[in-house]
Amino acid sequence: MTETPPTITAPGGALIAGPARQRRTRLVFLFPGRAAAVTGMARAPYAAPVVRAEVDRALATLDPPLAGRVHAVLFGPPGGAVPADAADPALFVLAHALTRLLADAGLTPDTVVGYGSGEVTAACAAGVLDPADALRLAVAYGRLAADLPPTATMSVGLPPEDVTRQLPPGVRLVAVDTPESCVVAGPEAELRRWERDLAQLYVTCHRPAAPVAGHPDDVPSRLGPVAAALVGVTPHAPRIRWLSSVSGRPVSADEAVDREHWLRQPLHPVRFADAAAQLGPGDRLVEVGPGGTLTGLLRQITPDLPARAILPADADGRPTPHPDPVRAVRALLAGAARRDSPHLPDQTEAGVPRPGRRR
After folding, report:
1. Beta bridge partners of 150
2. What ranges does the record give for the region Disordered, renumbered to this chain (predicted)?
Protein backbone atom coordinates (compact mmCIF):
# COMPACT_ATOMS: atom_id res chain seq x y z
CA MET A 1 0.00 0.00 0.00
CA THR A 2 1.32 3.47 -0.91
CA GLU A 3 1.69 5.87 1.99
CA THR A 4 -0.46 8.99 1.73
CA PRO A 5 1.78 12.03 1.23
CA PRO A 6 1.59 14.97 3.62
CA THR A 7 -0.90 17.75 3.05
CA ILE A 8 0.42 21.31 3.22
CA THR A 9 -1.94 24.28 3.38
CA ALA A 10 -1.53 28.00 3.95
CA PRO A 11 0.78 28.90 6.86
CA GLY A 12 -1.81 31.22 8.40
CA GLY A 13 -3.40 28.06 9.75
CA ALA A 14 -1.32 25.34 8.20
CA LEU A 15 -2.40 21.73 8.32
CA ILE A 16 0.70 19.60 8.18
CA ALA A 17 0.02 15.86 7.91
CA GLY A 18 2.72 13.36 8.73
CA PRO A 19 2.41 9.65 8.15
CA ALA A 20 0.36 9.13 11.30
CA ARG A 21 -1.40 12.41 12.16
CA GLN A 22 -2.37 15.91 11.22
CA ARG A 23 -1.22 18.97 13.10
CA ARG A 24 -2.39 22.57 12.84
CA THR A 25 0.17 25.34 13.04
CA ARG A 26 -1.15 28.14 15.27
CA LEU A 27 0.10 31.71 15.35
CA VAL A 28 0.61 33.24 18.80
CA PHE A 29 1.06 37.02 19.01
CA LEU A 30 3.02 38.32 22.00
CA PHE A 31 2.59 41.97 23.01
CA PRO A 32 5.25 43.53 25.28
CA GLY A 33 4.57 45.96 28.11
CA ARG A 34 5.66 49.54 28.68
CA ALA A 35 9.30 48.74 29.46
CA ALA A 36 9.75 47.75 25.80
CA ALA A 37 9.04 51.27 24.53
CA VAL A 38 12.05 52.93 22.87
CA THR A 39 12.24 56.14 20.89
CA GLY A 40 12.19 55.74 17.13
CA MET A 41 10.45 52.36 17.26
CA ALA A 42 7.92 53.26 14.53
CA ARG A 43 10.34 54.87 12.07
CA ALA A 44 10.85 51.81 9.87
CA PRO A 45 7.37 50.22 10.09
CA TYR A 46 5.75 53.59 9.27
CA ALA A 47 6.86 53.16 5.66
CA ALA A 48 4.08 50.58 5.22
CA PRO A 49 0.82 52.30 4.17
CA VAL A 50 -1.28 50.21 6.57
CA VAL A 51 0.92 51.16 9.53
CA ARG A 52 0.99 54.81 8.47
CA ALA A 53 -2.79 55.00 8.28
CA GLU A 54 -3.30 53.35 11.67
CA VAL A 55 -0.66 55.46 13.42
CA ASP A 56 -1.94 58.71 11.91
CA ARG A 57 -5.51 57.85 12.85
CA ALA A 58 -4.57 57.10 16.45
CA LEU A 59 -2.42 60.21 16.91
CA ALA A 60 -5.26 62.38 15.60
CA THR A 61 -7.55 61.18 18.41
CA LEU A 62 -5.17 62.07 21.26
CA ASP A 63 -5.01 65.38 23.08
CA PRO A 64 -2.37 67.48 21.26
CA PRO A 65 0.18 67.60 24.13
CA LEU A 66 0.03 63.83 24.64
CA ALA A 67 -0.01 63.24 20.89
CA GLY A 68 3.24 65.20 20.67
CA ARG A 69 4.90 63.06 23.34
CA VAL A 70 3.65 59.82 21.78
CA HIS A 71 4.88 61.01 18.37
CA ALA A 72 8.30 61.71 19.89
CA VAL A 73 8.46 58.15 21.24
CA LEU A 74 7.40 56.65 17.93
CA PHE A 75 9.63 58.75 15.68
CA GLY A 76 12.24 60.46 17.83
CA PRO A 77 15.98 59.79 17.63
CA PRO A 78 16.93 56.38 19.06
CA GLY A 79 18.18 56.42 22.61
CA GLY A 80 15.94 59.24 23.80
CA ALA A 81 13.92 59.43 27.01
CA VAL A 82 10.44 57.88 27.04
CA PRO A 83 7.92 59.93 29.07
CA ALA A 84 6.05 57.74 31.54
CA ASP A 85 2.63 58.78 30.26
CA ALA A 86 3.55 58.13 26.61
CA ALA A 87 5.00 54.61 26.78
CA ASP A 88 1.71 52.70 27.00
CA PRO A 89 -0.19 54.59 24.29
CA ALA A 90 2.85 54.58 21.99
CA LEU A 91 3.26 50.83 22.35
CA PHE A 92 -0.43 50.23 21.72
CA VAL A 93 -0.46 52.46 18.64
CA LEU A 94 2.53 50.66 17.12
CA ALA A 95 1.52 47.11 18.07
CA HIS A 96 -2.04 47.59 16.87
CA ALA A 97 -0.76 49.00 13.56
CA LEU A 98 1.59 46.03 13.16
CA THR A 99 -1.27 43.65 13.91
CA ARG A 100 -3.30 45.29 11.15
CA LEU A 101 -0.32 45.07 8.79
CA LEU A 102 -0.01 41.34 9.40
CA ALA A 103 -3.78 40.85 9.08
CA ASP A 104 -3.71 42.65 5.73
CA ALA A 105 -1.23 39.97 4.61
CA GLY A 106 -3.51 37.19 5.86
CA LEU A 107 -1.51 36.59 9.05
CA THR A 108 -3.89 36.61 12.01
CA PRO A 109 -3.32 35.12 15.47
CA ASP A 110 -4.99 32.08 16.96
CA THR A 111 -3.77 33.05 20.46
CA VAL A 112 -2.65 36.34 22.00
CA VAL A 113 -0.61 37.05 25.13
CA GLY A 114 0.20 40.47 26.56
CA TYR A 115 2.93 41.20 29.10
CA GLY A 116 1.68 43.67 31.72
CA SER A 117 0.07 46.64 30.00
CA GLY A 118 0.55 44.78 26.71
CA GLU A 119 -2.59 42.95 27.77
CA VAL A 120 -4.58 45.89 26.39
CA THR A 121 -3.24 45.26 22.89
CA ALA A 122 -3.80 41.52 23.30
CA ALA A 123 -7.43 42.11 24.26
CA CYS A 124 -7.89 44.36 21.24
CA ALA A 125 -6.37 41.75 18.93
CA ALA A 126 -8.72 39.15 20.45
CA GLY A 127 -11.75 41.34 19.71
CA VAL A 128 -12.45 42.01 23.39
CA LEU A 129 -11.80 45.76 23.15
CA ASP A 130 -12.51 48.04 20.22
CA PRO A 131 -9.37 49.92 19.06
CA ALA A 132 -10.65 53.31 20.24
CA ASP A 133 -11.52 51.92 23.69
CA ALA A 134 -8.18 50.13 23.91
CA LEU A 135 -6.29 53.33 23.11
CA ARG A 136 -8.19 55.22 25.82
CA LEU A 137 -7.32 52.48 28.30
CA ALA A 138 -3.66 52.57 27.25
CA VAL A 139 -3.66 56.33 27.80
CA ALA A 140 -5.18 55.81 31.26
CA TYR A 141 -2.49 53.28 32.17
CA GLY A 142 0.10 55.78 31.01
CA ARG A 143 -1.36 58.43 33.30
CA LEU A 144 -1.34 55.97 36.17
CA ALA A 145 2.33 55.17 35.54
CA ALA A 146 3.22 58.86 35.40
CA ASP A 147 1.34 59.55 38.63
CA LEU A 148 3.23 56.92 40.63
CA PRO A 149 6.78 57.39 41.91
CA PRO A 150 9.41 55.23 40.17
CA THR A 151 10.61 52.23 42.13
CA ALA A 152 13.88 50.32 41.84
CA THR A 153 13.59 46.87 40.29
CA MET A 154 15.69 43.72 40.15
CA SER A 155 15.50 40.40 38.33
CA VAL A 156 16.17 37.44 40.64
CA GLY A 157 17.14 33.99 39.36
CA LEU A 158 14.85 32.04 41.67
CA PRO A 159 11.41 30.40 41.36
CA PRO A 160 8.51 32.57 42.55
CA GLU A 161 7.87 30.48 45.67
CA ASP A 162 11.48 31.02 46.81
CA VAL A 163 11.32 34.72 46.02
CA THR A 164 8.11 35.33 47.96
CA ARG A 165 9.46 33.40 50.93
CA GLN A 166 12.55 35.64 51.13
CA LEU A 167 11.16 39.06 50.21
CA PRO A 168 12.69 41.81 52.39
CA PRO A 169 10.43 44.45 53.98
CA GLY A 170 8.95 46.82 51.43
CA VAL A 171 9.95 44.66 48.46
CA ARG A 172 7.26 43.05 46.31
CA LEU A 173 7.00 40.56 43.49
CA VAL A 174 6.03 42.33 40.27
CA ALA A 175 6.56 39.66 37.60
CA VAL A 176 7.16 35.95 37.13
CA ASP A 177 9.04 35.93 33.83
CA THR A 178 10.11 32.28 33.73
CA PRO A 179 9.78 29.39 36.18
CA GLU A 180 13.26 30.28 37.44
CA SER A 181 13.29 34.09 37.15
CA CYS A 182 11.22 36.82 38.79
CA VAL A 183 11.23 40.61 38.95
CA VAL A 184 10.90 42.40 42.27
CA ALA A 185 10.52 46.07 43.14
CA GLY A 186 11.12 48.13 46.25
CA PRO A 187 13.42 50.60 48.00
CA GLU A 188 16.89 50.81 46.46
CA ALA A 189 18.63 50.19 49.78
CA GLU A 190 16.66 47.00 50.44
CA LEU A 191 17.32 45.69 46.94
CA ARG A 192 21.07 46.34 47.25
CA ARG A 193 21.23 44.54 50.58
CA TRP A 194 19.25 41.58 49.29
CA GLU A 195 21.34 41.44 46.12
CA ARG A 196 24.50 41.11 48.25
CA ASP A 197 22.90 38.36 50.32
CA LEU A 198 21.77 36.48 47.22
CA ALA A 199 25.21 36.77 45.63
CA GLN A 200 26.65 34.87 48.59
CA LEU A 201 24.21 32.07 47.74
CA TYR A 202 25.28 32.18 44.07
CA VAL A 203 21.89 33.50 42.98
CA THR A 204 22.10 35.61 39.82
CA CYS A 205 20.50 39.05 39.92
CA HIS A 206 20.15 41.70 37.21
CA ARG A 207 18.82 45.22 37.15
CA PRO A 208 16.24 45.85 34.39
CA ALA A 209 16.81 48.95 32.30
CA ALA A 210 13.51 50.57 33.28
CA PRO A 211 12.00 51.02 36.75
CA VAL A 212 8.38 50.20 37.46
CA ALA A 213 5.86 52.65 38.79
CA GLY A 214 4.89 52.76 42.41
CA HIS A 215 3.74 50.12 44.86
CA PRO A 216 0.41 48.27 45.08
CA ASP A 217 -0.46 50.27 48.19
CA ASP A 218 -0.25 53.42 46.05
CA VAL A 219 -2.26 52.13 43.12
CA PRO A 220 -5.88 51.68 44.32
CA SER A 221 -6.30 55.33 45.26
CA ARG A 222 -4.96 56.43 41.86
CA LEU A 223 -7.08 54.30 39.56
CA GLY A 224 -9.39 57.21 38.71
CA PRO A 225 -8.10 57.63 35.13
CA VAL A 226 -8.54 53.93 34.47
CA ALA A 227 -12.09 53.91 35.86
CA ALA A 228 -12.93 56.98 33.77
CA ALA A 229 -11.56 55.35 30.62
CA LEU A 230 -13.82 52.35 31.19
CA VAL A 231 -17.02 54.43 31.23
CA GLY A 232 -19.01 53.48 28.16
CA VAL A 233 -16.70 50.60 27.25
CA THR A 234 -18.47 47.35 26.36
CA PRO A 235 -15.99 44.47 26.29
CA HIS A 236 -16.83 41.49 24.10
CA ALA A 237 -16.19 37.78 24.40
CA PRO A 238 -12.82 36.89 22.85
CA ARG A 239 -12.93 35.65 19.26
CA ILE A 240 -9.65 33.77 19.75
CA ARG A 241 -7.74 32.37 22.72
CA TRP A 242 -6.51 35.16 25.01
CA LEU A 243 -3.99 34.14 27.64
CA SER A 244 -3.99 36.64 30.49
CA SER A 245 -0.76 37.67 32.19
CA VAL A 246 -2.82 38.51 35.28
CA SER A 247 -4.13 34.98 35.87
CA GLY A 248 -1.70 33.09 33.65
CA ARG A 249 -4.53 31.16 31.99
CA PRO A 250 -7.08 31.55 29.17
CA VAL A 251 -9.68 34.25 29.72
CA SER A 252 -13.26 32.99 29.62
CA ALA A 253 -16.10 34.85 27.93
CA ASP A 254 -17.54 35.85 31.32
CA GLU A 255 -14.18 37.15 32.51
CA ALA A 256 -13.54 39.05 29.28
CA VAL A 257 -16.72 41.12 29.51
CA ASP A 258 -15.99 42.14 33.11
CA ARG A 259 -14.67 45.71 33.03
CA GLU A 260 -13.29 45.29 36.54
CA HIS A 261 -10.52 43.17 35.00
CA TRP A 262 -8.79 46.37 33.91
CA LEU A 263 -8.95 47.84 37.41
CA ARG A 264 -7.44 44.67 38.88
CA GLN A 265 -4.72 44.38 36.26
CA PRO A 266 -2.31 46.98 37.76
CA LEU A 267 -2.63 45.43 41.23
CA HIS A 268 -1.26 41.97 40.46
CA PRO A 269 2.12 40.57 39.43
CA VAL A 270 2.63 39.72 35.77
CA ARG A 271 2.29 35.93 35.42
CA PHE A 272 3.97 35.61 32.05
CA ALA A 273 5.57 32.24 32.85
CA ASP A 274 2.18 30.77 33.70
CA ALA A 275 0.64 32.12 30.49
CA ALA A 276 3.56 30.75 28.44
CA ALA A 277 3.08 27.33 30.04
CA GLN A 278 -0.30 27.16 28.25
CA LEU A 279 1.46 27.04 24.87
CA GLY A 280 2.34 23.78 23.21
CA PRO A 281 3.25 21.88 20.04
CA GLY A 282 1.97 23.58 16.92
CA ASP A 283 2.25 27.10 18.38
CA ARG A 284 4.46 29.55 16.48
CA LEU A 285 5.35 32.64 18.50
CA VAL A 286 5.58 36.17 17.12
CA GLU A 287 6.58 39.18 19.24
CA VAL A 288 4.55 42.12 17.92
CA GLY A 289 6.41 45.16 19.19
CA PRO A 290 9.90 46.57 19.58
CA GLY A 291 12.79 44.33 20.62
CA GLY A 292 12.76 40.68 21.51
CA THR A 293 12.41 40.48 25.30
CA LEU A 294 9.39 38.17 25.28
CA THR A 295 10.91 36.01 22.56
CA GLY A 296 13.98 35.61 24.75
CA LEU A 297 11.89 34.63 27.76
CA LEU A 298 9.95 32.08 25.76
CA ARG A 299 13.13 30.48 24.52
CA GLN A 300 13.89 29.78 28.17
CA ILE A 301 10.38 28.51 28.96
CA THR A 302 9.50 26.65 25.75
CA PRO A 303 12.78 26.22 23.83
CA ASP A 304 11.22 23.78 21.35
CA LEU A 305 8.65 26.30 20.06
CA PRO A 306 9.79 28.47 17.12
CA ALA A 307 9.69 32.18 17.96
CA ARG A 308 10.43 35.36 16.05
CA ALA A 309 10.64 39.07 16.95
CA ILE A 310 9.38 41.15 14.01
CA LEU A 311 11.03 44.42 15.13
CA PRO A 312 14.37 43.17 16.45
CA ALA A 313 16.77 45.47 18.26
CA ASP A 314 20.54 45.79 18.17
CA ALA A 315 22.85 45.16 21.12
CA ASP A 316 22.03 48.62 22.52
CA GLY A 317 18.28 48.02 22.37
CA ARG A 318 17.77 50.27 19.35
CA PRO A 319 15.42 49.17 16.54
CA THR A 320 17.08 47.65 13.50
CA PRO A 321 16.69 49.92 10.45
CA HIS A 322 14.99 47.66 7.87
CA PRO A 323 12.60 45.16 9.46
CA ASP A 324 10.05 43.29 7.34
CA PRO A 325 7.35 42.00 9.73
CA VAL A 326 5.32 40.14 7.10
CA ARG A 327 8.35 38.37 5.68
CA ALA A 328 9.54 37.49 9.19
CA VAL A 329 6.24 35.79 10.08
CA ARG A 330 6.04 33.97 6.76
CA ALA A 331 9.59 32.71 7.23
CA LEU A 332 8.70 31.48 10.72
CA LEU A 333 5.71 29.56 9.39
CA ALA A 334 7.58 28.15 6.41
CA GLY A 335 10.31 26.96 8.75
CA ALA A 336 7.65 25.37 10.94
CA ALA A 337 6.27 23.51 7.92
CA ARG A 338 9.69 22.05 7.12
CA ARG A 339 10.28 21.17 10.76
CA ASP A 340 6.90 19.52 11.33
CA SER A 341 6.83 17.38 8.19
CA PRO A 342 9.73 15.01 7.52
CA HIS A 343 8.46 14.67 3.94
CA LEU A 344 8.71 18.38 3.12
CA PRO A 345 11.93 19.30 1.28
CA ASP A 346 13.90 22.40 2.18
CA GLN A 347 12.90 24.31 -0.94
CA THR A 348 9.16 23.84 -0.30
CA GLU A 349 8.71 27.38 1.06
CA ALA A 350 8.14 28.57 -2.51
CA GLY A 351 5.38 26.01 -2.92
CA VAL A 352 3.53 26.75 0.31
CA PRO A 353 0.56 29.02 -0.43
CA ARG A 354 1.16 32.25 1.45
CA PRO A 355 -1.70 33.99 3.23
CA GLY A 356 -3.08 36.88 1.21
CA ARG A 357 -1.63 35.56 -2.07
CA ARG A 358 -3.81 34.18 -4.86
CA ARG A 359 -2.66 31.05 -6.55
Report:
1. 213
2. 334-359
Is CATH 3.30.70.250 the classification given to domain 151-213? yes
Is 286 in a helix, a strand, or coil? strand
Beta strands in the chain (DSSP E): 15-17, 22-24, 26-31, 111-114, 150-156, 172-178, 181-186, 205-206, 212-213, 241-243, 283-290, 307-311
Fold classification of 23-148+219-351 is Malonyl-Coenzyme A Acyl Carrier Protein; domain 2 (3.40.366)
Contacts with 73 (C-beta within 8 Å, 6 or more apart), sequence order: 37, 38, 39, 41, 82, 83, 86, 87, 90
Residue intervals in the chain for CATH 3.40.366.10:
23-148+219-351
pTM of the full structure = 0.86
Q: What contacts 347, CB < 8 A, 6 or more positions away?
A: none
pLDDT in tens, the chain (359 residues): 444 433 334 334 443 333 333 447 899 999 999 999 999 999 999 999 999 999 999 999 999 999 999 999 999 999 999 999 999 999 999 999 999 999 999 999 999 999 999 999 999 999 999 999 999 999 999 999 999 888 889 999 999 999 999 999 999 999 999 999 999 999 999 999 999 999 999 999 998 765 666 666 677 788 999 999 999 899 999 999 999 999 999 999 999 999 999 999 999 999 999 999 999 999 999 999 999 999 999 999 999 999 999 998 876 777 777 789 999 999 999 876 555 554 434 333 333 333 333 33
* Cα(31)–Cα(288) distance, integer angstroms: 5
CATH 3.30.70.250 region(s) of the chain?
Answer: 151-213
For the chain, the first-to-last Cα distance in angstroms comes to 32
